[in-house]
Amino acid sequence: MVRDTSYMFVTGPDVVKTVTNEIVTAEELGGAKTHTTKSSVADGAFDNDMEALAEIRRLFDFLPLSNKEKPPVREVFDTVDREETSLDTLVPDNPNLPYDMHELIAKIADEGDFYEIQKDFAKNILTGFVRFDGSTVGVVANLPMVLAGCLDSDSSRKAARFVRFCDAFSIPILTLVDVPGFLPGTAQEYGGIIKHGAKLLYAYGEATVPKVTVITRKAYGGAYDVMAPKHLRGDMNYAWPSAQIAVMGAKGAVEILYRKDLGDADKIAAHTAEYEKNFANPFKAAERGYIDEVIMPHSTRKRVCRAFALLKDKDLKNPWKKHGNLPL
Residue 101 burial (CB < 10 Å; 0-12/13-18/19+)? Predict the structure, then answer.
């Protein structure tokens, strides 16, 4: 959509005023800002027609001509084994400090090119297209800078639709995980976060395209379960040394597991330290086969490119059925 000139609505401002006595402008009711930040009906807003057309052309450059064709492969002036040493210090030592996932995506993608989809809606999750070795790949990534990267109803719907789109056009999917859980609260529960979270679970579970996952930091509880883990038919799962794969954070877990010791600060501190020792690293998950390999951050591009090259001839078909029952 183009800002200040594009409008979409089922009923216009005049009808709304007549029926409900609500006075609203066309821009407020169905303008570009409304549909890119609140309703998610539109995927992007631009300042003028020329910019909109140019961005649409850029988008089409990532896509196949139809669902029967493979995604395009472009000539690329980037090396597959390029290392980015700056990624080794991307994740802060303090697990409560945020960082920008855009930086990671830009540094591992071909020539730093990332085409983001729906960037103004549900900003706690990123969706968009990159290329690896010239081939199109869809990216889904948590953004710790917004809501600490928690999943909520809007971000679950946004990511689920994007995953379904990629699967429809045989576009491989890279998932970058740093998620502390689902966003708690009455607003989320009343809004049906269980059902909306299930949409993302369903989308990943039914997707038959190559799926590569990299866990950069937190991967907690049910939110980890819906972000393309091994349990959800993820093909290759990597983790950085900073990854924490557990049911929940140490403080919350200890308060539940050792409730009888809550009055004793020393015991609680000891239990917390033990929990962090066991789960504030990816090695327990690797021992159980949930992680294929613990990798150094600077080698992420090389490992991801190698994984997608390995999976390029993946052929997986779901059991026949008329259609699944997507949790709408």
Answer: buried
- Domain check: are 11 and 100 in the same one? no
Residue 3's pLDDT is 95
- This model's pTM is above 0.85: yes
**Residue 108 within any structural domain of the chain:** yes
Q: DSSP for 124-157, please give it.
A: TEEEEEEEETTEEEEEEEE-TTTGGG-B-HHHHH
Q: Which of 60, 95, 110 is the last residue of a domain?
A: 60
Mean pLDDT per 10-residue segment, the chain (328 residues): 95 94 94 95 96 96 95 92 95 92 96 96 97 97 96 96 97 97 94 96 96 96 94 95 90 88 87 87 91 96 96 92 90
Burial of 168 (0-12, 13-18, 19+ CB in 10 A): exposed
Domain assignment of residue 11, yes or no: yes
Indicate whether 48 and 195 sit together in one domain: no
* pLDDT value at residue 95: 86
Residue 199: strand, helix, or coil: helix
For the chain, count helices (H), then strands (E): 13, 8
Domain residues for the domain of 213 are: 67-243+281-310
How far does Cα 268 stand from its chain's mean position? 34
Q: Which residues of 39-65 are buried (b: 16+ CB within 10 A; e: fewer)?
A: ebebbbbbeeeeebeeeeeeeeebeee
